[in-house]
Amino acid sequence: MSSKSYSIASIPADGIGPEVVEAGITALNALADTLKTFKLEFTNYDWSSETYKKTGKYIPDGGLDSLKQHDAILFGAVGAPDVPDHISLWGLRLAICQPFQQYANVRPTKVFRGTQSPLRNCKTGDLDWVIIRENSEGEYAGQGGRSHTGKPWEVATETAIFSRVGVERIMRFAFEVAQKRPRKLLTVVTKSNAQRNGMVLWDEVAKAVAKDFPDVTVDKMLVDAMTTRMVLKPETIDTIVATNLHADILSDLAAALAGSIGIAPTSNLDPTRQNPSMFEPIHGSAFDITGKGIANPVATFWTAAEMLEWLGEADASKKLLTAVENVCEAGVLTADLGGKANTKEVTNAVVAEIKKLYG
Ligand code: ATP
């Protein structure tokens, strides 16, 4: 039996981040202890909005060099009521994703056994999607500026950047993901009717890359029409590729349609593996429930499973997700999914299920 050891950086950061990351580490440790096929070693980084308020920096000097030494990063959430969102996002999350070239953001969504979609006729299996979000440029490239600040004639620009290299690499990645899934169906989402430069480049690159994947069926949707299709015909969708902004919006909708934003994970991947990839729940800091111990840890469990798969532990990944889904099916659910359990109770139930199934 192999016993590979992985070094994981944990960055719980803000809001419910520390609560769900603690739950994720508990489940991962229980899995590693039970299966005994791999080892995990966690290093905690206390980078957060509190650190920023004390020191003026989210990431200390040399911080990224330390982070780069790890095999993967488990992230919580960033954002504080008294720090503007664009400061916190650019100070921590994007300050890791962009220099580490985690250009592929993967966001799977499905209706778990034992949970319900708010869509009346949507059953488990009808909604099972993976959204691939371009994660390095596009609308979040940081290009733009403000002139005449505060004056009535103030001007601001926010320029989306689409490079052929950037579009082609995410397109290839998306085709590869679609190809590995049973339906081999990829929907390319753009807004190339109104946005006639960058979005037309997306369409052209998609068409060219498609030639290398003849077994993948491709269809094309405008982003506005895509929202309608997600609600009305969820069963017609499988893998979706879209820009940084479009996919960000679509994936929140996807998570809500699957039952709750508290279950969906997101992986920020550097497919070249030159840098560690980062795994996090899709939700944010959720200040309205911070400190109450009621945050749904399922998104963090699922992202932990995605992390294991990325590290090469596909079997352990599947086993973790099976245990989590069994717990959902048994009705141990947090309030966002209509249940009464708290974070600890769900976590304990997952640990018990891991021991029962694999001990
Ligand atoms: P951000 O701007 O960082 O994305 P946000 O405040 O816009 O954050 P979330 O933090 O994701 O969005 O919260 C949106 C809503 O979903 C809130 O009402 C929050 O309580 C709820 N929510 C988010 N995550 C969870 C979770 N893990 N468990 C239960 N409820 C959650």
TrEMBL record:
Spell out the PROSITE patterns in the cross-references: IDH_IMDH
Catalysis performed (reactions): (R)-malate + NAD(+) = pyruvate + CO2 + NADH
- Read off the SMART domains from this record: Iso_dh (SM01329)
Q: Does the keyword Transmembrane helix apply?
A: no
Q: Which SUPFAM superfamilies match?
A: Isocitrate/Isopropylmalate dehydrogenase-like
Report the InterPro entries cross-referenced here.
Answer: ICDH/IPMDH (IPR050501), IsoCit/isopropylmalate_DH_CS (IPR019818), IsoPropMal-DH-like_dom (IPR024084), TTC_DH (IPR011829)
Report keywords, A-Z: Magnesium, Manganese, Metal-binding, NAD, Oxidoreductase
Q: One short Pfam family name for this protein? A: Iso_dh
User: Per the UniProt record, which EC number(s) apply here?
Assistant: 1.1.1.83
In this protein, which residues make up the domain named Isopropylmalate dehydrogenase-like?
7-350
Which cofactors, by name? Answer: Mg(2+); Mn(2+)
The Gene Ontology terms for molecular function here are: D-malate dehydrogenase (decarboxylating) (NAD+) activity; magnesium ion binding; NAD binding
The protein's matches in Gene3D superfamilies, at most eight in alphabetical order, are given as: Isopropylmalate Dehydrogenase
Family label? Belongs to the isocitrate and isopropylmalate dehydrogenases family.
Question: Would you tell me the protein name for this molecule?
Answer: D-malate dehydrogenase (decarboxylating)
Instruction: State the organism's lineage.
Output: Eukaryota, Fungi, Dikarya, Ascomycota, Pezizomycotina
